């Protein structure tokens, strides 16, 4: 297998209309797997920070590789783009735009994709994925729409105070399956707008709360910093954890 096959990617740019978002729309990138056929049906991965997942995470190339070489069943990726200026407002549960973004995701994005692409509609066939605040907003989307999402991939999740407060509320989370990784060099990471945080401590606290209420977790701490150089290396194993073999 030559590397050239990994780079033959089909990525479509789309725009979803929205009643919830102030802009009235949101841009997407949609990856279609090798051998894509509209008469088939596919699992689907929904990524926060869609542009970063494609450009820095190289998720389309990784998807081709694990499909072509590792026997993973072909799947579709939907990367939801974000304006970095309002990213915290949308992704953080105490942000001014958070409720609107979560409602857009559950009530507008999912039906729009499912009307246009042959994706499977069972909750276990959908995966939410995100890094940092993208990991935490993925959890909050699943919490609000458990009939749509039961699986979350969180890479160095930014589980700040409000997220942990929400996790502390007693509830049955036995329906939730999460894959959590965090880098051991993330103990004093300076965020752009919230100060310095120990992401290892935040993720340990989140792990403890999620386990208390019955969530199924894969949790790992390993050498790595709060950056795509770490997360990109972890993506193949994380995706293969959730996605079925062909």
UniProtKB/TrEMBL annotation:
Single annotated GO MF: hydrolase activity
InterPro entries tied to this protein: AB_hydrolase_fold, Esterase-like, Mycobacterial_A85_antigen
Organism whose genome encodes this protein: Paenibacillus thailandensis
This protein's UniProt keywords: Hydrolase
Spans traversing the lipid bilayer: none
Keyword Hydrolase: yes
Top-level taxon of the source organism: Bacteria
Protein name as it appears in the record: Alpha/beta hydrolase
């Amino acid at each position: 297998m030559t590397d050239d096959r990994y780079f033959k990617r089909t990525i479509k740019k789309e725009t979803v209309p929205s009643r919830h978002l102030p802009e009235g729309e949101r841009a997407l990138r949609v990856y279609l797997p090798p051998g894509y056929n509209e008469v088939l049906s596919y699992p689907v991965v929904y990524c926060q920070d869609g542009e970063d997942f494609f450009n820095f995470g190289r998720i389309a190339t990784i998807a081709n590789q694990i499909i072509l070489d590792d026997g993973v069943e072909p799947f579709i990726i939907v990367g939801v783009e974000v304006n970095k200026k309002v990213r915290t407002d949308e992704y953080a549960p105490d942000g001014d735009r958070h409720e609107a973004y979560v409602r857009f995701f559950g009530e507008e994005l999912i039906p729009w994709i499912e009307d246009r692409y042959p994706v499977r509609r069972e909750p276990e066939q959908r995966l939410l994925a995100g890094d940092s605040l993208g990991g935490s907003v993925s959890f909050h989307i699943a919490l609000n729409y458990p009939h749509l999402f039961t699986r979350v991939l969180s890479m160095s999740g930014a589980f700040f105070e409000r997220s942990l407060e929400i996790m502390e509320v007693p509830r049955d989370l036995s329906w939730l399956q999460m894959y959590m990784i965090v880098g051991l060099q993330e103990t004093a990471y300076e965020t752009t707008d919230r100060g310095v945080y120990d992401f290892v401590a935040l993720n340990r606290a989140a792990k403890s709360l999620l386990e208390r209420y019955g969530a199924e977790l894969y949790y790992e701490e390993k050498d790595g910093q709060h950056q795509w150089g770490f997360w990109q290396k972890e993506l193949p194993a994380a995706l293969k954890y959730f996605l079925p073999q062909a």
